[in-house]
Amino acid sequence: MSAMSACKTLVRISISSLEFSLVCNQRNFSFIPLPNHPSFSPISSSLRFASLLSPASSISLGLTRHKLHSRPYVHVAESVAVETTDLADDSNKDIVEHLLTNTDDVGRLMKMERRSMTGDGGELIQSKRWFPYLDKFKTGTTFLSSSEILEAMDPYIMEVRKERFSNVVKSRSYSVCLVVEGLCDFGNVSAAFRSADALGFQSVHVVSCDSSKRYRDNRHVSMGAEKWLDIELWNSTQECFEVLKSRGYRIATTHVGMDAVSIYDMDWTCPTAIVVGNENRGISDEALELSDLHCSIPMKGMVDSFNVSVAAGILMHHAVCDRTSRLGSHGDLSLEESRILLAEFSLRHSKSAISIAHEFAKRKAASPVSKL
User: Fold this and answer.
1) What are the phi and psi torsion angles at 207 (to 5°)?
2) Can you list the pairs that 50-56 forms with residues at least 24 positions away whose Cβ atoms lie under 8 Å?
3) Which conformational region is residue 140 in: left (phi greater than 0), alpha (psi within -120 to 50 degrees), or beta?
4) Phi, psi of 214 (to 5 degrees)
5) In terms of DSSP H, where are the helices of the chain?
């Protein structure tokens, strides 16, 4: 009996191997390469993915083929090129580390014109509700509005991406921001950025990051979150806090002390800047002195602290939950602010976006103005 079973097993294996060889030999993939996208082929002026499975294997595995909506081929090709330009850049240098040690590069991440925080005399302008962007983008000697930016970028961004942008912007807020002070491990900064983006925080601030220390490659920790955040770098805690207070924020430093307020007893609908400190030293004495209040996460275990990126995630998550329970949602941008941030995201979408906006401005300038 055992010999018979072994024989049957060998026959099954041989038949399976033969079937697999026949399927592999019958595959005949036809690729018409697009720029940077050899896995796409145009059929009947539309776009489809080249199948990696035969129809029979797709059915047996329970896979469903999804038909893409037909769009003009040139637009689809341009959309693909625009959306993936930045993804191909896989440098060995940590992206977050590079940004935090190159102030000019951080500034270039933000495209729309930004509000100034100082008046003609250098004094700080007080703001009850902070939103950083103006409704204009400079291209050469002219400006485009957010509506014009969205019009210019519309043919070059696929519908699923536009829907993603729209949903993200609905959940965004500047009412609560994150401040990381004196962190040495860029992995912690990257993790905090990723949590901020995932939870709907648009504004993050970094104070005195120690760029002399190098750690493991962290470019996969942030998952590209830094591209979609407003990152501001500060040389001193005092400078950072003064500007944040002028924008209407109260400063809440995380600190384990007798005067610390539980985060669960705070009203997070009040504009708040959450400050987390160094991995070893914690919040600096200067930050504790300049802050408006000290807060803490109640601890139930034997240890008295969290990892700094974990603490930042807990703080931001509770802030979102508290704001949602009180206001109905964390996102609180007006229609105009949402449109401007959508335009900002469209411009950050790829390296080609700026060139597209410039070309749109040229065509606009060259078109005759109708006279009434």
Assistant:
1) -110, 125
2) 54/23, 54/26, 54/27
3) left
4) -120, 140
5) 2-26, 55-60, 73-84, 95-100, 103-109, 146-153, 159-170, 186-199, 237-246, 285-290, 308-327, 335-348, 352-366
Nearest partner of 95 among 108, 106, 107, judged by Cα = 106
- Which residues, other chains included, contact 179 with Cβ-Cβ below 8 Å and sequence gap of 6+? 204, 205, 206, 207, 240, 244, 251, 273, 274, 275, 276
Contacts of residue 109, Cβ cutoff 8 Å, sequence gap at least 6: 99, 226, 227, 231, 348
Q: Which one is predicted more confidently, 73 or 247?
A: 247
Element (H, E) at 274: strand 272-276
Which residues have C-beta within 8 Å of that of residue 257, sequence separation ≥ 6? 294, 296
- Encoded tokens for 192: 């905090």
The answer to whether the beta carbons of residues 177 and 132 sit under 8 Å apart is no
Q: Regarding predicted confidence, which is higher, 164 or 59?
A: 164
Task: Report which DSSP code applies to 231.
Answer: E
**Token match 């100082």: residue?**
118
User: What radius of gyration, in Å, describes the C-alpha atoms of the chain?
Assistant: 26
Q: How do residues 265-324 score in pLDDT, each as one tens digit?
A: 999 999 999 999 887 888 999 999 999 999 999 988 888 788 889 999 999 999 999 999
Q: Taking 70 as the threshold, does the pLDDT of residue 94 lie above it?
A: no
- Compute the half-sphere exposure of residue 22: CA atoms within 13 Å on the CB side of its CA: 7
Task: Give the CA count within 13 Å in the CB-facing half-sphere of 202.
Answer: 23
